[in-house]
Design a protein that fits this description.
With 104 residues, the chain is an alpha+beta fold. The chain has helices at 8-19, 23-42, 88-94; strands at 47-49, 53-60, 63-66, 73-76, 79-86. The two termini are 26 Å apart.
């Protein structure tokens, strides 16, 4: 399964198969959850999902970068970035361990 990508449609189908909602209801549920996460992050809030991980918004200050082709220094504007920090449970699952009872 390495190298495959899970899409929104895949998530909707998984909800349909496992929960038993209709395909339309499953799609609406997945969209509502993703929209809520996006809205919270856009407001600058961190989103923590227990046993999964956290979406954290960070402010990056202005800095000097370098054009790799020309070597010319250019200023990089300050900006906000989102990073995902997996929980200890997620890290353990990725590494084939049980990870029961741990959380970040």
């Amino acid at each position: 399964m390495a190298g495959q990508t899970v899409t929104r449609a895949d998530l909707c189908e998984a909800v349909y198969q496992k929960i038993g909602l209709s395909r339309t209801e499953s799609s609406k549920l997945v969209e509502a959850v993703l929209d809520e996460i996006c809205d919270a992050v856009a407001r600058g809030e961190n989103v923590k999902l227990s046993s999964f991980g956290s979406f954290v918004v960070r402010d990056k200050g202005e800095r000097i970068g370098r054009n790799p082709k020309t070597g010319v220094e250019v200023p990089i504007e300050p900006r906000r970035v989102m990073v995902f920090k997996p929980s200890n449970v997620m890290k353990a699952r990725i590494n084939g361990q049980s990870g029961e009872g741990e959380d970040a």
